Amino acid sequence: MTDHSEHQDARNYRDVFSELDPHHELRNNPAMLGDEEAYRNLLAGDDHNVEELAAAAEKLLASRGTVDTPEAELDPHMLETLKALLADFDDQQMDSLERALAAYHDAYGEGGAVDDDDSMSAAETAAEARDFFSDYSGRIDIDTGEDAPDLGVYDDTAHPKEVLDDTPTAEDYAALAAVEAELNTRWGERKIAPDLDRMRKLMDMLGHPEQATPVIQVGGTNGKSSTARMIDSLLRAMGQRVGRTTSPHLQSPTERISVDGKPITPRRYVDVWEDIKPFVEMVDAWSEEQGGPRMTKFEVLTAMAYSCFADTPVDVVVAEVGMGGRWDATNVARAEVAVICPIALDHMDYLGGDIEQIAKEKAGIIKPTEGANTAHNPHGTVAVIAHQDPKVLHVLLEHAVDVDAVVARQGMEFEVSRQSSAVGGQLLSIQGLAASYEDIFIPLFGDHQAENAAVALAAVEAFYGAHTGRPLYEKAVHSGFAAAQSPGRLERVRNAPTVLLDAAHNPHGAKALARSLDKDFDFTRLVGVVAILEDKDARGILEALEPVLDKVIVTTNSSNRAMSVADLTELALQVFEERKVDSAPTLADAIELATVDAENIDDQGVMTGAGVVITGSVVTAGDARALFKKEPA
Q1: Which residue from 278, 284, 84 is spatially nearest to 193, judged by alpha carbons?
Q2: Which of 87, 130, 284, 621 is 20 to 30 A removed from 62 (C-alpha atoms)?
Q3: pLDDT tens per residue, range 421-435
């Protein structure tokens, strides 16, 4: 491979996107509109009378945006903005708006469904109307003006838009368990065939669902799930309908396929599998004829996700890489934005024996732009790169230059500029690709989550083509981050004593956890409950946690790959003083033992201020969430 300079040959995001953007007239794009012009918020009627706003839109609609003085009174600047937007609408957009306004009047205007004997007040009517328009750009069916339903079960014998109760039943859970048993007969995520031939064959049979919508792909080693979830939350705050696929799951396999920020239902999961099953079996037969394996479980789950998102449909897909990158099943899609979270040593038996080899595999999600550039990335594929080891960064930039991708690097093109602790999380200021976004609250703890937030913001900016003078809509940025969740990542599941759980499963993640526990919490005593999988660097994890733990209770989890209590105890005794090590046969027993230890009362009858952290594996975090009766998320 040609040797490239790290800084001279990579196409820098700021330089590239300072050019005149030919797509700046895109509508419904928060990155392309200023605060007053944000179409979604304009139609929401924030701080304005919704009836007046609708009347103004109707008047402008009647003359295709050329009328000078509509009858309704409206703020002059807001009026001019509305006129300019409607004047640029094509006939299809005008027709859609006209239908939406008609539906508005059917519901709230004269002749509507409001009963005179039980009429709503003007304030109530305005509030409902505001709700009606608030999600117009992404959550309202523009052909009918009606609420676009989520993934529900439809009753074809009733009104075509009527959604029945989709609360999972016992039968749904039984069907989900049967599907999981069937999928578990395939190779699991620890046994892979490193190529995309089977996925490409299946996508071709299914009509290429992976091409149905733009994709943001999230790779790397640590922070992928949290970053993917924050990207998801930001996009939804912008009015987009988002499909997200992540792995592994904490509690339920349905978590792997999320729409509108929620896992799909067990019934939907079963239905998607049954829809693609005949095609999967055809690919199985084809592969076996070639001397290869059946499709792996992860390949099938990824295909289910892309199929589900195409059928829903969604506006954007956020796809978290499972392992590696170049030949990972998610990589059958061509991402407009490729996010590379911090890369560390992990899965070395598959990805390579050193950090550079691993980086080469993970760089494979940065692909060249093919065909005409899209409206979202007019300058080509964008690689958003988190803080990396210098050796890793060199490999990633080398690959980006080879495929002519635009590069945005944390610490150069974007960065966390200020960080402080806050109740329930932290307060950040982030210098993004387009602007500085101040006083952002995220309900997550840890420096690593602050860094993940900056990466997520840059990814969304890159997706929208935001650049200097065209930032993201700041209110949406604030609300998107405030709504972000990352279950199993320094998640508080109990108070008095405080019990936290974290899915750290390698030394890099354990070090980030230790730093957060030391910085963000003030425990007088901290007890760790640790269960680790046998193929992980258990000693490295324990060594990373040792400085912050006053006691460690080693145990096991529900995985058949879990390290035995005896073996983990032996390792713990090599890292911790003997008096600090205890063990328990099950995770539930270990949590009970740790909680009792943390609830000790001092001589003055005051609780000691101790805490408990449960960690060591994604499986451990998931098992703990279930024990604390947390719903899958």
Answers
A1: 284
A2: 130
A3: 888 899 999 999 999
